[in-house]
Amino acid sequence: MPDLALVGAVERMRWRRWIAGVACWVCAALWGVAGAQAQSVQAPQASALPPMSVVTPARDVAQWIERMHQAPRKRSYVGTFVVLSSSGAMFSSRIWNACDGKQQLERVDGLSGTPRKVFRRNDEVRTFLPEERTVRTERGDARGLFPQLPSVQGTSLARHYEAQVLGQERVAGLDADVVWFKPLDPLRFGYRIWSERESGLVVKMQTLAADGRVLEQAAFSELDLNAAVSMDKLARMMDDVSGYKVIAPAAAKTTALEEGWRLKQPVAGFVPQSCHRRLAAAGASEASPVLQCLYSDGLATVSLFIEPFDLKRHGAQGQLASVGATQMLGQRMASDAWVTAVGEVPMQTLRLFVGALERVR
User: FRET pair for 282, CA 20 to 30 Å: which of 60, 88, 251, 305?
Assistant: First the structure.
């Protein structure tokens, strides 16, 4: 079985990819699936999209991503969205987003699965679990939540993706540009993204295998871009922890090299984004501290979780799992450490990461 102490860390990684309230449920399913392999995947057909008379401005890959990245920081909204995995799992949540140009505050309520409310104020995240009467608070990157489109330095999206405008469609009653981010090598999946024409807000996103098969889809089923969302009201709700036990795991910022690890050679297009040693919270029953290093190419993300090998928790064999676009590879290292690679990439990409990882001290 996978190390249960990693589940929370994996949830935090998945938060970076989607809304945390949805991501944690998908991750829980991920750890229960074994032996599944990522399958190779051709392009989605533009003819499937009915053309509209509106002309879409010409933009390159970086310009499209930057527009989508900035949209949640400039517009308040309320909406309901649904996440559907190719495995058949489906989850829905309600989201409130407030911003004033200086800070961003979001609330996400799970409408299915385990009841939870998640708040994020810039880089502070609080997850309320009403049934357990606990709230988990931690720090994270201050990025838009639907979906996370990272602002990555040191990599060139144009070297690894090509942006092709497929047309326009309506999503949740709003006109949206449809852009296919076509991967230029087999190390990453493709993405078909619907962004609202006026604001650039992502209203729908599909992760695609090479043959156009949809691995995962996340979309608003209802969205109000003119909703009056009170930042003060959301802030009061986020700060009201009365009656809850507060758990605050410590995360020490570090680098892989400082911890004695490095990649012998980089995986094409992926650059380091962050690295933290996650420590057990006071009163929490977690195992040994886990080193989490995050890499991104500007669209896809991969996390490496490194910890001491434990035969009882990890087992003698390696571990493979897949849920939708998310793949997991667990493997024992020669240095008697255990690495778990998780990412929305083909399995061969995770194998390259694990194969390049080495202990330097």
Answer: 305
